[in-house]
Specification:
By secondary structure, the protein is mostly beta strands. It folds into two domains: 3-65 and 161-193, Beta Barrel (OB fold (Dihydrolipoamide Acetyltransferase, E2P)), CATH 2.40.50; 67-159, no CATH class. Helix content is 9%, strand content 50%. The chain contains one helix and 13 strands, in the order H-E-E-E-E-E-E-E-E-E-E-E-E-E. Strands 1, 2, 3, 4, 5, 6, 7, 8, 9, 10, 11, 12 and 13 form a 13-stranded mixed β-sheet that branches. The longest helix has 19 residues, at 3-21.
Length: 202
């Protein structure tokens, strides 16, 4: 793994932590959608919400991709981030799992609300145990201040970071962008782009 890629991953994961922890009205936004166009200094994205936004780019804006891995690649001691939906019984069912590289251990650690639905949560935590359950595998997770269990169904995306560059930002590709409000638009802080058929699931 190149030093440049390690720095990009570290910068991106730090930004995810900032999004999770920021509590002010000007906190960074999470933008999900398809690239409409890209120029040297602007990324235009059609969001899942239906609107189209312009996002300012800098020459050094970090860009990363993801690659699929298997559920058995998650071991006790792995540090993961998992979005999940809370059932009426209070149990968590994962909608995606991101396995962080060791260099990003501790990123955004904790359990908090996420923006993929009214009962959506994000848990960034250490995997203490992997147990076969009736609906998939249950990850026993612990983080500073608490612990919980998340069931991971067989069809849930499980990913980790992979290298990418600005050249991978092409019309039609899906992106997940952490961006700061900037005037009438946004300024990109970090970008995860679809590559080799792997779309950002977070």
């Amino acid at each position: 793994m190149s030093i440049r890629f390690k720095l990009a991953v570290s910068a991106f994961t730090f930004s995810l932590a900032s999004v999770a922890l920021a509590q002010t009205p000007a906190k960074p936004a999470r933008i999900r959608g398809d690239i409409v166009s890209v120029s040297a200094d602007t990324l235009t994205v059609h969001r899942r919400s239906g609107d189209t936004v312009k996002i300012a780019l800098k020459a050094d804006t970090p860009v990363t991709a993801l690659k699929n891995i298997e559920l058995h690649d998650i071991k006790p001691g792995s540090f993961v981030g998992t979005a999940a939906m809370t059932g009426t019984d209070g149990k968590l069912t994962a909608t995606e799992v991101l396995v962080f590289p060791e260099s990003a251990r501790g990123t955004g650690e904790g359990h908090y609300a996420w923006d993929m639905g009214p009962r959506s949560t994000m848990t960034n935590a250490n995997v203490d145990q992997v147990v076969q359950g009736t609906s998939g595998r249950d990850l026993k997770l612990s983080y500073k201040g608490g612990s919980n269990a998340v069931t991971v169904p067989e069809n849930v995306p499980i990913v980790t970071f992979a290298p990418a560059t600005r050249d991978d930002l092409k019309p039609g590709k899906q992106v997940f962008v952490v961006a700061a409000p900037a005037g009438a638009g946004f300024a990109a802080q970090r970008i995860v782009v679809e590559k080799d058929g792997v779309k950002p699931p977070m």
